[in-house]
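hey m, so remember when u said the tokens were messed up on ur end? i reran from scratch. heres the input so u can diff it against urs
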Amino acid sequence: MAGLADLKRRIRSVKNNQKITKAMKLVSAAKFAKSVAAVQAARPYQKALYSMAAKALQKARDIQGFSSPFMDAEDLAGQGAQKQAKMIIVLSTDKGLCGALNSNLFKAAEKFLSDPVHKENSSTFEVAYWGRKASTIFSKKASAYKVAESREGVFEKPTFMQTKDMLQSAIDRFQSGELSEIYLVYPEFESALAQTPKVQKLLPIDIESIEKAGSAKKRSGSEDILVEPDPVKVVEAILEKAVYGKVYTALLDGRASEHGARMTAMDAATRNADEVTKKLTLKYNRARQAAITKELIEIVSGAEAL
């Protein structure tokens, strides 16, 4: 009977875990719909912002001595000093139980950092942990990378102003010459089943990608624009919003990716728990039937002996 009691206890434990995974799936499903809507609303705005920046940039580049604090040091007037340090910002979740989302993200970050181009370079990489899981994983390699900062709850309810506050310190260091490049590692949302880890350069701004976005809009039939009162100031303001908007969109992607991955993982866990329960129940019934049969045989044998 000890074996029957153990099987019964295991069945009850699996059913309790199934209730938890099912509840987590329903919670993530409710948050997933809102997160996807936010991503779909933000992406067109970011593309339009890049298109506007490209048009304003074409006007500003005609001005002699044009410079922007968001461009490379070679494009900045009066900056001869080389920037040595680089920063990589890793966006991750605070909680687990979301499949391979975080592990794939960290593999992409490690692959980027272990690239021969970066290893041969004398630059020193600093890592900013935006998410508890990133801090947990990279803390094991604290001797290899300098910790720039650590944050939690970045995927909870991201806002544009919150993004600006979190990123302001890194941008100030870039504009002062302390940092030469800033990279962003985040999960790009595609669907509930697919979240692709992305490593993108945040600063200096990739002017070529902005100009390509602008040329695409121009081919689609958009007309020339008039930039007033000062093209340089307009470009600087748009580029600033483009930088913050890129990180804000990445946070929205991360939030949707987290709930999509967790919803899928918890759905699979719920179905697996159901299969395990069926197998354990079958095993329990067989063991119980064997125990009853054994008792009947013992009773019949005893009666015949009398």
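this time it looks ok to me. The helical segments are 2-60, 101-113, 116-120, 132-138, 160-175, 207-219, 231-305. if urs says something different then somethings off w ur setup not the seq
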